[in-house]
Amino acid sequence: MNDTTIQRNMDAARLLLEDAMPNGRFDVIRELVAPEAVTRRAGFANLFQATGDAIPANGNFLEWIEAGWKPLSESLSDQTSEARDIVGHGNTVLLQFHMTALHSGTFAGAPATGKRVEWDENAVLRFNDEGKIVDLWFMCEELSLAQQIGYKLQLS
Description:
Elements: H1 3-20, H2 26-32, E1 33-41, H3 45-51, E2 59-60, H4 61-75, E3 76-89, E4 92-103, E5 116-127, E6 133-140, H5 142-148
Parallel strand pairs: 1-6
Antiparallel strand pairs: 1-2, 3-4, 4-5, 5-6
Helix pairs in contact: 1-2
């Protein structure tokens, strides 16, 4: 894979995570992501599972973003995302980014606090030869966010 292709993929990943997703720009998301793209793990997968939240932890990315974005963006609104580190190798892009949002609605069972919350997140995105994202994997600081929205850690 040449440097131009790797840079194209890194630019697409940055556009997806710094602009299209935080701003709910579905037209841009559909341009960047292949229809068959799979989310291997949503960023809040463990938190969703632990709290019984209805947002799925994995599956077809475009279906997830269209069904899951409305409840997510209503509960964590006014999102910002800043890529801090981005690395491209072959058809894979790795990003470490910092997110902020307003906790404006019930998220993972926690009622709105009205507070600004923040977390760091990592993403691994794989691209096909046409430059479309076909595979996504996310991991974020779920425990940090859970504590910011009111969850307490407790030994059982």
